[in-house]
Amino acid sequence: MSGVRLLVGTRKGAFVMTSDGTRERWDVTGPHFGGWEIYHLKGSPADPNRLYASQSSSWFGQVIQRSSDGGKTWETVGNKFVYDGPTGTHLWYDGTPHPWEFERVWHLEPSLTDPDTVYAGVEDAALFRSTDGGHTWQELPGLRTHGSARSWQPGAGGMCLHTILLDPSRPERIFTAISAAGVFRSDDAGKTWRPMNRGLKSEGIPDPNAEVGHCVHRIAMHRSRPSVLFMQKHWDVMRSDDAGESWREISGNLPTDFGFPIDVHAHEPDTIYVVPIKSDSEHYVPDARLRVYRSRTGGHEWEPLTKGLPQRDCYVNVLRDAMAVDSLDPCGVYFGTTGGQVYVSADAGNSWTPIVRDLPSVVSVEVHALP
Amino acid sequence: MIIRVVLPAHLRTLAHVDGEVKLDVEGVATSRAVLDALEACYPMLRGTIRDHVTQQRRAFVRFFACEQDLSHEPPDAPLPDAVATGAEPFLVVGAMAGG
């Protein structure tokens, strides 16, 4: 591996950052698409120079950008996201039926094997797929038309499909997560879906066996062990050892189990990272100290990682898509904050340095190794 | 006829154009005809001014010409003669609100 490329989406544009394998000195380009919200951009695992970016604004709607040269140049591709068939209704914040309305693409997940195939998770929650490099998009309607969908409600950020995990060992298996409906799994390449929320307990949902309604913030897996999933829920950090069939809490000694991102070490399937946030009404780190917490035991036992991170007067948040790990050895860990800092740890979290300090509020961080 | 169109800065960037856009519009000059011609020349603008399917103007986009707000005019209403003759541009404006 000669280096890494970091893709950072912010409230006012995208930034591409590259470094050699030491991950000490960084070349930063951008903003690309200045002034637009970049909820997510991600490279194809099958071709690291093929990137997809979700560009949106309240004024001008959704645009999808594609690069074939690692982010040096971009071309606009298709932005027509039309629900397949009758849209039906979900529940609005006040509990009344509300028609499905496309708002934006939250997450783009390129295929593990084909650079021209990419999935899009959108608000209002649905899953789309393109097989022609983003020029055209087709909904996989089985998710949105699931029998429970009429009872789905938006979280504070909207009713978004924000996480898409593709199982590397079973190409027909896809996991998605929706705020605030929960986790869903398809075992037939997206045709049909089942809720995967058994064991989740959520304040405000009186039914302890509620099939949907859980505000799942993020799920993650290690590609060598895709039946083990980790979850940062609105409150609670959770783990599943049976591909989502059941969940158990692993919050352990975390100072707070509220948060947004969760990620897994590239080479140690039981090493996981979260960023505890004070509460759902105070979206900043507890005690004014920015701490990543790492568990090397698959949960329950957590250690704070603070070296190089601000330990006073800090009031930032780290959003659900704003953490990533690279595949180098030692594993690199990255995250971006709502204060515009992007931090890197080239030693699996033991120490951190800022790559940049003053970007617009960071929404997403992705990284891939360069050959 | 040649219609002059002024786009907001973000859409000029998206379409890779500087300054005014000049469009050859056939038949009666209406906002629908102008936007059809605009999207035909610059397909990356589809969906950014009006909805792909409903063709409804996006909520934070307005249309002006000759010091008139034409945003609520029917899409097939003729535009002012000064626009149709190219004397005045058709303005696509992003609402001045928020971040």
List keywords for this structure.
heterodimer; A: 371 residues; mainly beta; four-stranded antiparallel β-sheet; globular; B: 99 residues; Ubiquitin-like (UB roll)
Present the secondary structure layout.
The complex is a heterodimer of chains A (371) and B (99).
Chain A lengths: L2 E8 L2 E8 L6 E6 L4 E8 L2 E11 L3 E7 L7 E3 L11 E3 L5 E3 L4 E7 L7 E6 L2 E5 L7 E2 L20 E7 L7 E6 L2 E5 L7 E2 L20 E6 L7 E5 L3 E4 L7 E2 L12 E3 L7 E3 L17 E4 L7 E3 L17 E3 L7 E4 L5 E4 L7 E4 L5 E9 L1
Antiparallel strand pairs in A: 1-2, 1-30, 2-3, 4-5, 5-6, 6-7, 8-9, 10-11, 11-12, 12-13, 14-15, 15-16, 16-17, 18-19, 19-20, 20-21, 22-23, 23-24, 24-25, 26-27, 27-28, 28-29
Chain B lengths: L1 E5 L2 H7 L5 E4 L6 H11 L19 E5 L2 E2 L11 H4 L5 E5 L5
CATH class placement of chain A: Mainly Beta
Task: Provide mean pLDDT of chain B, rounded.
Answer: 95
What oligomeric arrangement do these chains adopt? heterodimer
Q: Which structural class do the helices and strands of chain A define? A: mainly beta
In sequence order, what are the helices and strands of chain B, one letter per element? EHEHEEHE
Provide the residue-averaged pLDDT of chain A: 97
Q: What Rg of chain A do the Cα atoms give?
A: 19 Å
